Structure to design on (110 residues):
């Protein structure tokens, strides 16, 4: 099972917990963590291709520029394709932000 954890700094708590689970007990589960600060994560969402990352409509805002910098750690292009995972955990703002709402729609979560 491939698991993506996408969210704000609160994701770090899940990452720390995950790292405490012995590798033998994680067999068959691959977890990838994609986190950035709360001010940055709210400038992110899904683009036309369905990949998650900073959205152009927020370009020029300080939080967006920092989100671009932080997203480089996600991999090539600074984007994550939620469709490439068996499950996605969204951590952080649940108040209708572009990112959370879009990921829920793309993955069929409620």
């Amino acid at each position: 099972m491939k698991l993506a954890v996408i969210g704000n700094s609160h994701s770090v708590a899940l990452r720390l917990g995950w790292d405490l689970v012995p590798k033998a007990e994680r067999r068959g589960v691959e977890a990838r963590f994609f986190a950035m600060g709360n001010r940055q994560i709210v400038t992110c969402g899904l683009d036309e291709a369905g990949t998650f990352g900073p959205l152009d409509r927020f370009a020029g805002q300080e939080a967006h520029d920092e989100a671009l910098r932080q997203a480089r750690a996600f991999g090539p292009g600074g984007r994550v394709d939620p469709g490439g995972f068996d499950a996605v955990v969204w951590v952080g703002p649940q108040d209708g932000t572009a990112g959370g709402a879009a990921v829920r729609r793309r993955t069929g979560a409620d």
